[in-house]
Design goal:
- The strands form two sheets. The chain has a two-stranded antiparallel sheet with strand order 1-2.
- It is 10% helix and 22% strand.
- It is α+β, with helices and mostly antiparallel strands.
- The protein has a domain of 58 residues.
- The chain has one helix and four strands, in the order ββαββ.
Length: 109
Amino acid sequence: MADKKYLNGIIIKEKEFDNGGKQLQIKIKVNEFIEELKSVEENDWANLIINRRKQPSDKGVTHYMVVDTWKPDQNYQPPTQRNDTINTPTPSPDPIDEPNNGVEDRLPF
């Protein structure tokens, strides 16, 4: 797995309230963060991932941001659709539809 590229210029802290609600407080050092974004920008996009730290830092930082380096495989070929027929058993003929082969129907109605 490739090394993670962490983004500088951003601090993310999670605050939890007594009622169970949570919020993320994000502080951005604008000029530094813009330079970080420009360094990872590709086709006018920066793909980023925000992860939760295992333990908050001494300053209360609970999350960090890394560059998402995943790229689709250019040689990927989706599986071809199979045209195999399913072997379903042929139903036996319905006895009502069969000719009586000379046997007289003995039902009273």
